[in-house]
Design brief:
The chain is an alpha/beta fold and 442 residues long. The chain folds into two domains: 256 residues, P-loop containing nucleotide triphosphate hydrolases (Rossmann fold, 3-Layer(aba) Sandwich); 167 residues, CBS-domain. 36% of the residues lie in helices and 19% in strands. The chain is built from 19 helices and 16 strands. Strands 6-7-8-3-9-10 form a six-stranded mixed β-sheet, with helices on both faces. A four-stranded antiparallel β-sheet has the order 2-1-4-5, covered by helices on one side. Strand 9 and strand 10 form a beta hairpin. It is elongated, with a radius of gyration of 27 Å. The C terminus is likely disordered. It comes from Marinactinospora rubrisoli. Keywords: ATP-binding, Nucleotide-binding, Repeat, Transport. InterPro entries: AAA+_ATPase, ABC_transporter-like_ATP-bd, ABC_transporter-like_CS, CBS_dom_sf, Gly-betaine_transp_ATP-bd, P-loop_NTPase. One of its GO terms (molecular function) is ATP binding.
Length: 442
């Protein structure tokens, strides 16, 4: 009796089995690629890419990162080794059928110039035999998803779009058949910095909704740190120098090559990865608009604080009120006239980074900035002390240097003299600029 299995036997069946929505793991096992008699472009590479994550292949030009990515969808055939996608051997699949269920986005979009936006997006669904109504519905759905109004853009040609709009269409085309895997080869490299940053943010938003498995190739460290759930830093021949989360790589670089590639200032880069919601916030004295002035005066005195934050009925920050504002007053706090120093200029969201918090503190009239959580409700405050403590925690997570670690020049690293780093100097200067006591006074 033949053996039966419920496991899908093709990527098409796998996508249909999972509704085509969720990512699948990718395994590269001993993968090598040689071109002629030259040294291998990819040399015995083994790595696992978890399902539903963005994994960035980061390295210098010529290290083999694009070759590695193109072997996943068999645009380049491996010389040896195995690549499993959702547990299925890529070499056991028909190449064309495999590629129709792996989205592919390249630099400058690669749109067909003689086709409309709708025609470009519809290519893979048409190859898969979708009817016109279903295809048109999917085109409009994807245009909405990438932020392009269908009625305005579906009948345009690529030449009528900006570079950023073309790249959005390229992403929509890659997602057309709802593939579990998306390959992105330096897709934003040719765009201006503002458009590039906007599309990076858009990709993170889309990934939050879709949870695809995304392999993203770049040589831009900041882009890798911003987008990657994990980063594989590759050396010559796609040798993995370090593979881990951005936080792990910044806090503990594997060797001098990684440190040099990251470019220094790792503490400040970590601030750009750390969210305000992930640190211990300062809790200011708070008051509702209906609280009694006399009671608030006592609470400020007991706390040794000069200021309280006033919240509305939904716990959203309204203004600051100080002891001087309360002197001689009575009745509800909300009835007090606004003081000259009570204005709240900036409220951070809990999803803001600590780097954004530092910028807000440097630009604010006072060195304490309220933080709002869901629906704008107050959850605490950020001060320079908050940031300093976060930097200290980062340093404590760092392990001692590995024995024998050398610099890029091959010489041992200089001994620790106890001198402050550039990061700590910048943070300390920010604090001293506003005086040492004001953060606690609020």
């Amino acid at each position: 009796m033949p053996e039966t299995t419920d496991h899908p036997q093709s990527l098409a069946a796998l996508a249909a089995d999972g509704g085509g929505t969720a990512g699948v793991p990718i395994e590269l096992i001993g993968v090598t690629k040689r071109f002629g008699s030259a040294a291998p472009a990819v040399d015995d590479l083994t790595m696992t890419i978890p399902a539903g994550e963005i994994v960035v292949l980061l390295g210098a030009s010529g290290c083999g990162k694009t070759t590695t990515m193109r072997m996943i969808n068999r645009l380049i055939e491996p010389t040896s080794g195995r690549i499993l996608i959702g547990g299925l051997d890529a070499r056991a699949q028909q190449p064309d059928e495999l590629r129709r269920h792996i989205g592919y986005v390249i630099q400058q979009a690669g749109l067909f110039p003689h086709m409309t936006v709708a025609g470009n997006i519809a290519q893979v669904p048409m190859m898969l035999g979708w009817d016109r109504r279903r295809t048109a519905r999917r085109v409009d759905e994807l245009l909405d998803l990438v932020g392009l109004a269908p009625g305005e853009y579906r009948d345009r040609y690529p030449r009528q779009l900006s570079g950023g709009q073309q790249q959005r269409v390229g992403v929509a085309r890659a997602l057309a058949a709802d593939p579990p895997v998306l390959l992105m080869d330096e897709p934003f490299g040719a765009l201006d910095p503002i458009t590039r940053e906007n599309l990076q943010e858009e990709l993170l938003r889309l990934q939050g909704e879709l949870s695809k498995t995304i392999v993203f190739v770049t040589h831009d460290v900041d882009e890798a740190l911003r987008l990657g759930d994990r980063i594989a830093i590759l050396g010559a021949g796609s040798r993995i120098v370090q593979y881990g989360t951005p936080e792990e790589i910044l806090a503990d670089p594997a060797d001098a090559h990684v440190e040099q590639f990251l470019g220094g200032r790792s503490a400040m880069k970590l601030l750009g990865l750390t969210r305000v919601r992930d640190v211990v916030l300062d809790d200011q004295v708070r008051a509702g608009t209906g609280d009694d002035v006399a009671g608030l005066r006592h609470r400020l005195r007991d706390a040794g604080a000069e200021w309280a934050i006033v919240l509305d009925e939904n716990d959203r920050p309204i203004r600051w009120v100080g002891r001087a504002d309360l002197d001689g007053g009575s009745g509800p706090v909300g009835a007090l006239p606004p003081g000259p120093d009570g204005r709240i200029d900036t409220v951070l969201s809990a999803g803001s980074t600590l780097q954004e918090a530092v910028e807000a503190l440097l630009n604010a009239d006072r060195e304490v900035v309220p933080v709002a959580g869901a629906h704008g409700g107050y959850v605490g405050a950020v001060t320079l002390t908050t940031v300093r403590q976060a930097v200290q925690e980062v340093r404590e997570r760092r392990r001692p240097p590995r024995p024998g670690r050398t610099t890029a020049a091959g010489t041992p690293p200089a001994p620790d003299t106890g001198a402050p780093s550039a990061d700590s100097v910048a943070l300390a200067a920010a604090g001293e600029a506003d005086g040492p006591d004001r953060a606690d006074a609020r």
